[in-house]
Write a structure and sequence with these properties.
The longest helix has 18 residues. The radius of gyration is 23 Å and the shape is elongated. It is an alpha/beta fold. The relative contact order is 0.11. The C terminus is likely disordered. The strands form two sheets. A six-stranded mixed β-sheet has the order 1-4-5-6-8-7. Helix 3 packs across helix 5.
Length: 232
């Protein structure tokens, strides 16, 4: 995972140093050994010992009055999921000769001729000529068995494809059916594909599944994403 596109180079170097420093450390088995005794000599580390016990015993912290003091922070998991997925997807697209364009890194695009309604797909797949060929949106949601994704998501991707003159869009959910589903839009040569990832798999398998998904998108066009628009 250290050489993954998700991890910035500077952070890769810091993590590599930590890995070398902890090379001889053996992961503890829960309950196998008692935690170190609290003494005056290690008093300054009592808080760290208590926190490590919580982690090893797979316990969590609740927001109520208690004896454990914790300094923490809150993550917007939808944002973490979106950034991770779009970064890894863009890297997979680059390996195939294309470019994954995130909002703000490409030209501003609009839904209407008056340029009043801006559209911002999570990722726009552009071919070697810089032309959009597909849009991809991450959804930190679960798709139920047999469903094709929430209606609002379909409307959103249909608008993106219409404005960009594309034939297909992709919704990638955090959880749901393993098999991809296709929705063909009435009155337009647009197909919306719904995919789901299994986030419980090990990191290497998860990255491999994303790469496989990108390859499936590419292969659908005969190996090349070079044809753009409804009349192509």
């Amino acid at each position: 995972m250290l050489d993954s596109a998700v991890v910035p180079p500077r952070l890769q170097m810091r993590l590599a140093r930590l890995r070398r420093a902890l090379a001889d450390v053996t992961p503890p088995n829960p309950g196998a050994e008692p935690s170190p005794a609290r003494t005056r000599l290690n008093e300054r580390y009592h808080w760290a010992l208590q926190l490590s016990e919580l982690i090893i015993e797979h316990r969590s912290i609740e927001h109520r009055i208690g004896t454990v003091v914790v300094r923490g922070f809150v993550l917007d998991m939808w944002k973490v999921f979106e950034d991770f997925l779009m970064t890894t997807t863009a890297a997979a697209i680059a390996r195939r000769g294309g470019t994954g364009v995130r909002p703000g890194s490409g030209p501003t695009r609009y839904l209407d001729h008056g340029r009043t309604v801006m559209i911002e797909p999570d990722l726009t797949w552009c071919n070697s000529d810089g032309k959009p060929v597909a849009v991809i949106d991450a959804k930190y949601k679960t798709t139920a068995a047999g469903k094709r994704g929430p209606n609002a998501d379909m409307y959103q991707l249909t608008a993106y494809c219409t404005a960009l003159g594309l034939r297909e869009g992709h919704l990638i959910y955090a959880k749901g059916d393993a098999a991809s589903h296709a929705v063909e839009v009435v009155g337009a040569a647009i197909t919306i594909y719904c995919h789901a990832l299994d986030l419980t798999t090990p990191p290497a398998e998860l990255l491999a599944s994303i790469d496989t998904l990108v390859e499936t998108m590419r292969a659908r066009h005969g190996g090349e994403f070079s044809v753009v628009g409804h009349d192509s």
